[in-house]
Amino acid sequence: MRNHRGxxxxxxxxxxxxxxxxxxxxxxxxxxxxxxxxxxxDALRAADRLRREEGARLDAxxxxxxxxxxADPWAANDRARVAALxxxxxxxTGEYAxxxxxxxxxxxxxxxxxxxxxxxxxxxxxxxxxxxxxxEARSVAEALVRADPVRPSYRSLLGELxxxxxxxxxxxxxxxxxxxxxxxxxxxxxxARWLEIVGRTNDARxxxxxxxxAAAARGDLxxxxxxxxxxxxxxxxxxxGRLDAAEQAFRAGLGAHPEDYRLLGxxxxxxxxxxxxxxxxxxxxxxxxxxxxxxxxxVMSDAALAAGDRAQAExxxxxxxxSVRRQAGSLHRGWALFLLDRGLRVDAVAAQxxxxxxxxxxxxxxxxxxxARHRQHRDAEAARAMANALAQGTRDAxxxxxxxxxxxxxxxxxxxxxxxxxxxxxxxSFGAPQAQAARAVLDSIRG
Length: 447
Description:
This protein is mostly helical. It has helices at about 1-15, 15-70, 75-95, 95-110, 120-130, 135-145, 150-165, 170-180, 190-195, 200-220, 225-240, 245-255, 260-275, 275-290, 295-305, 310-325, 335-340, 345-355, 365-375, 380-390, 395-410, 415-425, 430-445.
């Protein structure tokens, strides 16, 4: 160490003025770092102040309408407004109990007036979807469409629920009729998701970018909603390996709604996709300081493990499980995949996945069952389930990776190679361990 330091001073003495210049440059860099730190701190304080102000306004509105309900127990419109505000607060905070409260308020409004009460029905459908009670939500959406068959937002809500339940014939008919309305902000995100499911990713990208631009230009939408449209764009780009485009979208969303926990969670996932483990953990901490989102905690666990901190990875996993268990709804698929990837509770997850498919037969339900069967070494059954997962032509790197690894286990190297190559083509960084495993298997197949 002393020899190294001595050489450093010799070099400085020989360079003379250059050394002075280098010292000045370092000082300037330090000043720039301090300035950036101050700006970041100022931005965090401003974002925190904005969140408090928005929360205070929402709470004040909620108290106002709750007082009106107390004065008139049969005030259906006021009860519907309470339900909408409770639903908005639950989305802002990520608190599962808030969705239960929104559901109760919406049902109370409908009990006061069952007909001509679309506002309460919309809130009820939203609260049920947040609890993954998709079959019940679909019944509500169908009632909305029957009462008002020309409103695009009601029909797109029904289409979304048809997708969630795996009724792709119904979704095809619903979204086919909505094609002329795809620029409508109540339709565009759901229509884009349908395009993704059927493998039309570029068309989905076009729809989402147009919607995000339109939402930002409106001027009358809450900042949280504008940020959500940017989130949808970034999520699409991230899942398709376009990392710079994803970052641009996420930053646009944070510009509209600073410190949005969902956007910070996606930024953590983006950092992990780039192998920037420290940044992924820092962003994840900022997100989970607001809401213990299971998906973000999974990213943090993976990042800690990749950085060599197994104890911290296990701690994030424990917190993730606690967060999932607070949600009393159906199977949490992200948690289930997290367990399967680590070879944990495989039989229990397989049984849950099989039960989930009795009512929710979508591509991701079939994928989960396929991966669970693979982990049970029942690869013939896994392949049959995987065929259902890929039946719509969905270009998702995770699905294609699972298909490739299942075919590899069955000794079908040519099929495995095709699926794994497609997975890496769709998204070269779809998951650090998975992408690495896909490349290793491809190298093995190619000799």
